[in-house]
Amino acid sequence: MKTIKALVFDVFGTVVDWRGSIIREVQAAWPQVDAPAFADAWRAGYVPAMDRARRGEIAWTHIDGLHRVILDEIRPRFGLADLREAEIDHLNRVWHRLDPWPDAVSGLQRLKAKHVIATLSNGNVALLVDMAKHAGLPWDCVLSAELFQHYKPDPEVYQGAARLLGVARDELLMVAAHPGDLVAAQRAGLRTAYVPRPLERGEGGTLEPVGDAVFDLTAADFNALAAQLGA
User: Which fold has domain 6-17+98-228?
Assistant: First the structure.
């Protein structure tokens, strides 16, 4: 780990609590809606929508655009078919207003003292910048799949991050709560750190299986990761 020069982070679920944040905002605005089911349904459309873009079935678009398509598909199921356009747009931008996990800001500040830290998310640049302002996330740099016109787990995203940060691939540590993301980063030549988030799917939710994957580091949270890296 002494060769690590920079860290890049998955964001949704790893740095911020997307599910809890969406539930809180939906419950406050529309208390009649089953907010947990709504959040889960919205997120469930995320990977299929990205895969359609990755296969060329639809034009490549940023995550805000994909979130809007999914939102329009699920709104009638939850009694939100008659929202005004301004309300729909505001709701779609809830992903810009996600709250961090309790350890995220303090852990990132510790890591930043020793390393370059950046996002490496499928979220678009505007979304990630707004989120950083909202949540107080102290990134040195905001990197997005949007910059490469590819979504993770395409290797172009991970390799492009190393190129833009001016480091060798094995000098870049990918931090994520999702083993699939980390396995893809490994295949692209990056080092990896697994930080599981047991509450990402709520109380009683299940973690993505690790299987036989082995990562360079595993830590309970960002402060524990900082300690392992001597920060």
Answer: Rossmann fold (3.40.50)
Q: Are 96 and 127 in contact (CB under 8 A)?
A: yes
- Tell me if 6-17+98-228 shares its fold with 18-97: no
* Ranges in the chain, pLDDT < 50: none
Cβ atoms of 119 and 175 within 8 Å: the answer is: no
Reported pTM: 0.96
Put the strands of the sheet holding 6-9 in their side by side order: 141-144, 116-121, 6-9, 172-176, 191-194, 217-218
Whole-number Å distance between alpha carbons of 10 and 122:
8
Query: From the CB of residue 185, how many other CB atoms can be counted at a distance below 10 Å?
Result: 30
